[in-house]
Amino acid sequence: MEQALLWAACGTGFTFLMTALGASTVFLMRGRTSAMAQRVFLGFAAGIMIAASVWSLLIPAIEQAAETGGEAMSWVPAAGGFVIGVAFLMVLHAALPHLHPGAASPEGRPSKWGRPTLLFTAVTLHNIPEGMSVGLLFAMAGLTGDAATFGMATALAVGIGIQNVPEGAAVALPLLQEGMSAPRAFLMGALSGVAEPAFGVGVVLFAGLVMPFMPWMLAASAGAMMYVVVEELIPESHLGEREGAGLRASAGTLAVMAGFLLMMVLDVSLG
Fold it and tell me: Are the C-beta atoms of residues 170 and 41 closer than 8 Å to each other?
């Protein structure tokens, strides 16, 4: 258990630091990021999360379910957990007020929160399933001693860490552009990543209890991540895409493919 905790802390600590690295762009950039750059960032994150959901979460969920309950019904925990993850994120999005970068009005329940808090909440919501995913895989690696699972957990941490760089910038830069000081915008952007180590390490602490339900938990994390991708990242990565020409018009689409390819290579090579 101690080893799994250490691994999860290191893995989610890395993803948090990458969020902070992205938030640090407020000290370098004073103007607004271009629409095409935002599409590329969002598309790249979407591609990574799609590949991670399949290779790092759903496939291990199906394989573990087959080992414990037989291959005939191995799809049940994967499908059931996936639905639970989607429902979990839908409830959170409906219940918590939040504002996506670039959006004109907030979503969720009405509130008197300011724009900085709403922006912070939006990205923090996305980081919950990401942190849980990394923590679950490291917990499974620690409890089973399987080197392949440890490799998958490492690949997932690296992939999510890479996409957290533009995610951290997506929180901090709009806050800077709305008049917040650079140090405070950096702090808010960095803190949006705290949910990952909090939920990642928290999952490991209860690993002994959730181990029998690990296929369900892995699939639920995949469902939550896919909900974020389909509901927000892909649509936002294609806003105004058809207004350009050539590669510029397909920037968001190509970024999705690039993120998917990178995460696939990481998972196959490390896992």
Answer: yes
DSSP 3-state helix, strand, coil percentages of the chain (rounded to 5)?
80, 0, 15
Residue at 32 is within a domain: no
Q: What is the pLDDT of residue 186?
A: 93
- Chain centre distance of CA 224: 9
Interval 218-248: pLDDT, tens: 999 999 999 988 888 888 777 655 555 555 6
- The continuous run of DSSP H or E covering 16 comes out as helix 2-23
Beta-carbon contacts of residue 247 (< 8 Å; ≥ 6 apart) = 254
DSSP 8-state class, residue 233: I
Range of the domain at 235: 2-26+38-270
**Residue 2: count of CB within 10 angstroms of its CB:** 8
**Tally of CB atoms within 10 A around 260:** 21
pLDDT higher than threshold 80 for residue 71 = no
- Distance CA(166)–CA(184), nearest Å, equals 18
What is the DSSP-derived secondary structure letter of residue 32? P
Closest CA to 156 of 250, 59, 255: 59
- Give the C-alpha separation, 209 to 191, whole Å: 29
pLDDT band per the 50, 70, 90 thresholds, residue 211: confident
Within a domain: 238: yes
**Number of domains, the chain:** 1
Is 45 inside a domain boundary? yes
Q: Specify the pLDDT at position 97.
A: 84
Does the pTM of the predicted model rise above 0.90?
no
Assigned domain for 158 exists: yes
User: Which residues on neighbouring strands pair with residue 107, listed in sequence order?
Assistant: 98
